[in-house]
Amino acid sequence: MIDELCKVMFRITDYVMAFAPIAVFAAIASAITIQGPKLIIDYSIFIGQFYVGLLVLWTLLIAFGYIFLKKDIFRLMRIVREPTMLAFATASSESAYPKTMEALDKFGVPKRITSFVLPLGYSFNLDGSMMYMAFAVLFIAQAYNIDLSFSQQALILFTLMITSKGIAGVSRASIVVIASTLAMFQLPEAGILLILAIDQFLDMGRTATNVIGNSIATAVIARTEGNKDESTEQEGIMVNNISPANQLADNS
């Protein structure tokens, strides 16, 4: 019974995916008919602003990493270049996961830290996806000429910060969160079709950002844990050196 129900659900999903391109084309054609070439310009501005925002985020992430890693942050960026490009090309964090682990191992991060922090980061530290969803919701609101107050925008940002946690690291996973956020704030859910038209271009950038953010976070945690381990080892050496002296004092 359950197997048959799963087959029906998968068949329905296949039908939806088959007609999705037609629906996206119809939505874009309707929007262009109403707004004219202005929509194409809006798309270009939206994509440009999003990638500028990603560059700013990359700068902040590297600056944060420099505080703990010093000049090693630049070596880390060179090492994770391959998984970052793979994530950009495939628009999937999961596909770049093995390469990211190899890169971090090459950088010197212990596997016990990588195997724990990196999967956790892919569930709760998707900086690029978070930024994309905020941009997408605001773009849809502007496309429908809906003015959002500063308090509403702040509330949307706070909501996305919570709902984006645990999002799957696969392509188009952010669309589900965007849809629920639009419904929560009574914004037109049909606006998702406008986003789908350019989602692939945006997905590549946000996925690469997720890889960069998680790589830096893992390396920083490894560095801080390494310092703690060194302090513990030094304390152990001092105790071992002091113990014989205490024993001699007791014997005397």
Ordered list of secondary-structure elements with their pairings:
Elements: H1 2-35, H2 38-69, H3 72-79, H4 81-90, H5 97-107, H6 111-124, H7 127-143, H8 150-163, H9 173-184, H10 192-196, H11 199-251
Helix pairs in contact: 2-7, 2-11, 4-11, 5-11, 6-11, 7-8, 7-9, 7-11
Write a structural description.
This protein has 252 residues and is an all-alpha fold. The protein has helices at 2-35, 38-69, 72-79, 81-90, 97-107, 111-124, 127-143, 150-163, 173-184, 192-196, 199-251. 27% of the residues are buried. It is 83% helix and 0% strand. It starts with a helix and ends with a helix. The protein contains eleven helices and no strands. The model is unreliable at 228-239 and 242-252 (pLDDT under 50). The chain has two domains: 1-36; 42-224, Proton glutamate symport protein. The radius of gyration is 24 Å and the shape is globular.
Q: What is the straight-line distance between the termini?
A: 83 Å
In this structure, how is the largest beta sheet organized?
none
SSE order, one letter for each helix or strand: HHHHHHHHHHH
Strand content: under 5%
* Distinct helical segment count: 11
Strand segment tally = 0
Q: Using the 3D structure, state the CATH architecture of the largest domain.
A: Orthogonal Bundle
**Radius of gyration computed on alpha carbons:** 24 Å
Q: What CATH first level of the largest domain would be assigned?
A: Mainly Alpha
- The residue fraction in helices comes out at over 70%
**What structural class results from the helix and strand content?**
mainly alpha
Low-confidence stretches: 228-239, 242-252
User: Could you report the average pLDDT, rounded to the nearest whole number?
Assistant: 80
- CATH H-level homologous superfamily name of the largest domain: Sodium:dicarboxylate symporter
Shape: globular
CATH topology of the largest domain: Proton glutamate symport protein
